[in-house]
Amino acid sequence: MKTEQLEKQLSVWNRLLHVVAGASITLIFSSFNTQFLGVIWIMLQIAVTSSGFFLLWGKRWKTLLPSKDRANTILGYLLASWLLSLVPGILGADSLYYIIVFGYAIFILVIFRRTQKELSMSDEMFP
Description:
This protein is an all-alpha fold.
C-alpha cells in the first residue's frame, strides 16, 4: 500500500480511537448492573487491543515512517485497552489480577518510550 493511503487510513483509525475510548470509559462507569457486561467487555477488549497492536506491528504500518500522529493513535488504543482491563477489577476480580494490570501498564510505558525514541531518531535523520 502507498504511504498516502496509509496516512488517510490513520485519520480513520484516529477517529475510531475516540469511539473506543468513549466506549471504554462508559463501560467502566456502567459496570455495576449490566447483565451482558462480560460479553461486551471481551468483545471491546479484543477489538481495542488488537487494533493497537495492528497499528504498532502490522506489516503495512511498519513501512510507514514514524510520526507523532501514528504514535499517539497507537498509545490511545493501548490506553483504552488498559482502561478496559480495569473492568474485571471493578467487578471484584482477585487481587492478583491487579498485578497483571500493573504489568500491562508498564508494558504500555515501555512501548511508548520506544516509539518516542524512534520519533526522535527519525527527526535527527530528516531535519
